[in-house]
Amino acid sequence: MQPLKILKRVSLSSFWLLIKIGLRYPMAILPTLSATKVCMQTADQWYGKAHHLNGKANAFRHAYWNYCIAKNCYNKSYTIEHSLQYSKWITDWHEKAFPNRDLPRAMDLHNNKIGRLLFKSHPNLSLEQAAEKCRILAEQSVFIKSVPEIKNIKNQMVHIVK
Fold first, then answer.
1. For residues 77 and 150, what is the distance between their CA atoms, to the nearest angstrom?
2. What is the 3-state secondary structure (H, E, C) of the chain?
3. Which domain holds residue 116?
4. Does the reported pTM lie above 0.90?
5. pLDDT, tens digit, 9 for 90 and up, residues 81-101
6. Which of 32, 37, 57, 127 could form a disulfide with 47 if both were Cys (CB 3.0 to 4.6 A apart)?
7. Is residue 21 in a domain?
8. What is the count of structural domains for the chain?
């Protein structure tokens, strides 16, 4: 993970929004970086490069990333609700800062939400336990072909590449 190299790809307006989020949640910066590192290492270990595509591995990565961020922030004395709110803000920011086509973006946002829902219902899981739950949910994810299909799927991950 090379944060400075990645930030060079971000527009000035997205960068300023990131600064605003960081100022609002300064104690979340290091937990977010740590969560991102753990998530990427786990996704690499379990799925190789497949988690960079839009299949089940990618669904896992997005959900697990949100769980890890919320969990790490919660461990740094944020409340569950603040941890969830921050996780949503920072991962929504990521989707805006690194734009994607409509369907992959909708898939990512949906799977991010599933990770936050998992944290909300099971905030005391270890990161390893959460990874295993996300892995199971990813295996059970629903294949979709259009954005409107996502609206009908509430508590399952989705993927767009078989």
1. 34
2. CCHHHHHCCCCHHHHHHHHHHHHHCHHHHHHHHHHHHHHHHHHHHHHHHHHHCCCHHHHHHHHHHHHHHHHHHHHCCCCHHHHHHHHHHHHHHHHHHCCCCHHHHHHHHHHHHHHHHHHHHCCCCCHHHHHHHHHHHHHCCEECCCHHHHCCCCCCCEECCC
3. 27-159
4. yes
5. 999 999 999 999 999 998 899
6. 57
7. no
8. 1
